[in-house]
């Protein structure tokens, strides 16, 4: 990220990026809808207000902006106010982890999709992987009829999703 903005300008810019229904979320929602998956969006009563909730599949999806949520793959801390941004992003990451942990404990599978994974060049592969993950979770959940609370917990305790690059 180039650093041509004043802190005030950057703040305004980031506030806009953070707004609801930002583009990456829309890409995933529209695609899910076309594919026939039904979901709720911005579910406030769940930890972290997940962007997408597929109740039938016990899956919540977060679409994370790479800067705000500190995507390790290409993390560039601005050169001015470095300490401020580093702390802020670190706090965001810790909060994300806590919320994910709480969701796991509640029996949800958590899928994190990064903004950069929805760039046109990689988008179709990402969407295909999301679909695979949804169906895979669903089959596990249905598996052999032992859909007990214990089973829910063990599903939730599965290794991290393919999207957790961290
Ligand atoms: Zn990224």
Explained architecture:
- It is a single chain.
- The longest helix has 24 residues.
- The chain is an alpha+beta fold.
- About 10% of the residues have low confidence.
- Strands 1-2-3-4 form a 4-stranded mixed β-sheet, sandwiched between helices.
- The radius of gyration is 17 Å and the shape is globular.
- The protein has a single domain, classed as VSR Endonuclease (Endonuclease, Chain A, 3-Layer(aba) Sandwich), CATH 3.40.960.10.
- Helices cover 48% and strands 10% of the residues.
- It is built from 5 helices and 4 strands, in the order ααβββαβαα.
- Helix 3 links the parallel strand 3 and strand 4.
- Bound molecules: zinc ion.
- The site of zinc ion has 7 residues, from loops.
What's the helix and strand layout?
Elements: H1 7-17, H2 23-35, E1 40-41, E2 52-54, E3 59-64, H3 82-105, E4 109-114, H4 120-142, H5 149-156
Parallel strand pairs: 3-4
Antiparallel strand pairs: 1-2, 2-3
Zinc ion binds at residues 66, 71, 73-74, 114-116.
Top-tier CATH class: Alpha Beta
The CATH superfamily bears the name VSR Endonuclease
Q: What's the count of strands?
A: 4
**CATH fold assignment:** Endonuclease, Chain A
- Note the overall shape: globular
Small molecules (ligands, ions, cofactors) in the structure: zinc ion
Overall mean pLDDT stands at 83
Helical content (DSSP H or I, runs of 4+): 40-55%
Would you list the SSEs in sequence order as H and E?
Answer: HHEEEHEHH
> What composes the largest sheet?
4 strands, mixed
Flag low-confidence runs.
Answer: 146-162
Helix segment tally = 5
Strand content: 5-15%
Please identify, by name, the CATH architecture: 3-Layer(aba) Sandwich
Helix/sheet category? alpha+beta
Straight-line distance between termini = 20 Å
Number of domains: 1
**Lateral strand order in the biggest sheet:** 1-2-3-4
Measured on Cα atoms, how large is the radius of gyration?
17 Å
